[in-house]
Structure prediction request, 125 residues.
Amino acid sequence: MTKKILIVDDEPHIRILLEQTLEELEDEGVELLTATNGEEALETIQSEKPELVFLDVMMPKMNGFEVCDVVKNKLGMLNIYIIMLTAKGQEFDKQKGKEVGSDLYMTKPFDPDEVLEKSKTILGL
Prediction:
């Protein structure tokens, strides 16, 4: 079964950077998916059921906290690992991330090596 990673960010350069960071995982059979806003992310999560989601917080239509809350608490999709990826690194934001069920909170700018290693660990590669 193909493992899937969903990259959700409304900023094209962040999406591209994450795709470039994670593209070597495609050699190991990982499929990379992208979404540009919260609504699109939710649709993709429900239809594709990715194992791992990199989720931006500040996005149009639906923010990352709302998406995470729906996925984890309303839909009960607890087997999806959600990493909140955001420029907002205050303790308040990290706490909110925990409250809505995110598994990990990473701040931008992020270390591409750390993102890759984390992804390999989570996917068991």
Summary: The mean pLDDT is 95.
